[in-house]
Every structure is written in C-alpha cells, then in structure tokens.
Amino acid sequence: MEKSPVKLPTNDWTEEHRKLQALMLDDLSTKRDWKYVILKKRPQFDTPLPYEVSWSCVQHVTMALIGGYVMGCIFSLVMNMGDQAIAESSLSSRTQTIIYFRKSTSLMHKQGMSFGIFGSILFSYQCPLEQLRGRKDALNGFIGGAITGCYFAFSRRAPFRNYITGALGTGLLMTAFDLLLGF
C-alpha cells in the first residue's frame, strides 16, 4: 500500500507567494521588471497597527497636569493658613510674613506637583481606555483610578496589600467623582 504525500497546511501568505511565482515566470527579463513585480504585486495584508494615542488624549493629560498643579497650589495655600498663627511673636510682622510666604511657596510647589502628576497619570490611562471601550461611564474612572493607585503603590515600593488598598480606594474615589459629575 502506497502512502499518499503529506500535504502541509497553507496559509494566505504561501498561496499569495505561489501566485506571485506564477506571475513572475511569465515575462520578466530584466532586473527592473523583477523589482516591479516584487514591489507592486506583492500580497497586501491588513497588519494591525499599534494603538495610536489621539491628540485629544494628549490635551486631556496636559490639562490635568496644569489644572492639578494649580489646584494643588491653591489647596496648599488654604491648608497652610493656620501656620501663620504659630509664627514666632518676637519677630516683626513683616519678617513673619516673609517667612510664611517662603514656606508656603515651597509647600505649594510640592503639593501642586503631586496633584498634577496624579491627574496626568490618571488621565493617561482613562482617556485611551474610553476610546478603546467606546463608552464614557463610571467604569472607566474606576479602572483608571485603580491603575493609578497601583502605580503610586509601586512607586513607593509598598507591600502588596497597599496595591489592593490603593487600587480600590483610588478607583472608588474616581467612580464617585464620575457619578457626581453625571457620567
């Protein structure tokens, strides 16, 4: 009993390659003709492109960075008002005011950067997620907040339980904000 030859499975590329070989055997006498067939008649495949970030996401992240910085500065300025009462009474009021504003500006910058970085990281996950899902709802806020909470736990080299706490806490906070805003 004779065995039949094994037929290897073919995919689209091998079929297209065979068709090209048949075309090339016809009338290709010069090197230029070969280049033409290879470049012009090669099979065209739909290759998936990597996800491209849209310009609106870049704008959202930039606005979150700037808005978070300004909001953090204002928050720090308001929260540091009580420190003025603790100032030393032996100094003149002008010196006390100068010392207060020096401390306030350094704290304002630190607090503003924290708020700005938090907002930009949150929106760098949330905006592409909205585009991928095609919906603008509270689940995007929860997922973006959870990823941001995990990122901050990772950046602080915290133990694993802080990853869970950070993810749930930040995710629920962002969900509450989204529900409050009416998404």
From TrEMBL:
Keywords: Membrane, Mitochondrion, Mitochondrion inner membrane, Protein transport, Translocation, Transmembrane, Transmembrane helix, Transport. One of its GO terms (biological process) is protein insertion into mitochondrial inner membrane. The chain crosses the membrane at residues 58-79, 160-181. Signal peptide: none annotated. GO terms for cellular component: TIM22 mitochondrial import inner membrane insertion complex. Component of the TIM22 complex. Belongs to the Tim17/Tim22/Tim23 family. This is Mitochondrial import inner membrane translocase subunit TIM22.
